[in-house]
């Protein structure tokens, strides 16, 4: 029997390119195999299609407005979140209370309210960043602090972590402008085409959250390229995550960054775009990752990752996505925190009744035990 030869690197690259071609059916991302999506019923499929059309029209409409106008509208949206009891307002207060227990209640409420205003600005400016000409978008970066950390070591790639802080879409575009870049990407049900087109505008290669997507990241680092990852999303329950402290609270934390750094020897930095007052643009921050992020000990590595996130957040805490349910998955024995009343006073009373168990240390509950 004739033995079939294995393809060489060039042939494998051509295969990756073949996988990369997006189809209307799968909307796959560049550089990876098609991502299987759940089949929707006829009614749900129609609802998704209609929602996508409406959302796309709104994004394109909003993108026509000047950035100062968008930020003023974002302020109005934030005002509505502040004065109307809702889950985003409640979740932001819960997260801030857990992460900053030393703050007095009035100071905590003021920080939450500033955060909701920035939350409104974040989502109204996204269309502008996606749709406006690239020269206009890049011109919004007024300053880059720590630019020397963005330089790749000779012959090695660089892992760049951008938390959901400030304008993370701008951080991704700025990274891709520096050189060949692969970005880890979670396919979306809504506006997926628009997001993909926007993030590819500077030539970024998007790798979905699959095994093949991870191989794309490894190959990019081995070529000496940049790899971008959003490090603060809660991963799925599997062997690739552990509980590690984030502001002292056990947070289910990805190990992907650690695996990439250990396998390729690539250094790791954090980068985010801080929003300046009065729609004056953005300040880019580049910060080296804390020691231990490439440790063979999973808990040490995940703790270093979260320490880096906290360091970034401390620069402009009002611009972090505090409404996100970052502590949704809890270690065994700890009660969930994102439920119950919406009124501020009742939320705080409930948290106080759960203390200290609501924020038990990772050491007390076991570093890598997910909630059953």
Automatic annotation (TrEMBL):
InterPro entries: LipA_acyltrans. GO terms for molecular function: acyltransferase activity. Keywords: Acyltransferase, Cell inner membrane, Cell membrane, Membrane, Transferase. Pfam families: Lip_A_acyltrans. It is found in: Cell inner membrane. The keyword Cell membrane applies. The keyword Membrane applies. PANTHER family: LIPID A BIOSYNTHESIS LAUROYL ACYLTRANSFERASE, PHOSPHATIDYLINOSITOL MANNOSIDE ACYLTRANSFERASE. This is Lipid A biosynthesis acyltransferase. It comes from Candidatus Thiodictyon syntrophicum. The lineage of its organism: Bacteria, Pseudomonadati, Pseudomonadota, Gammaproteobacteria, Chromatiales.
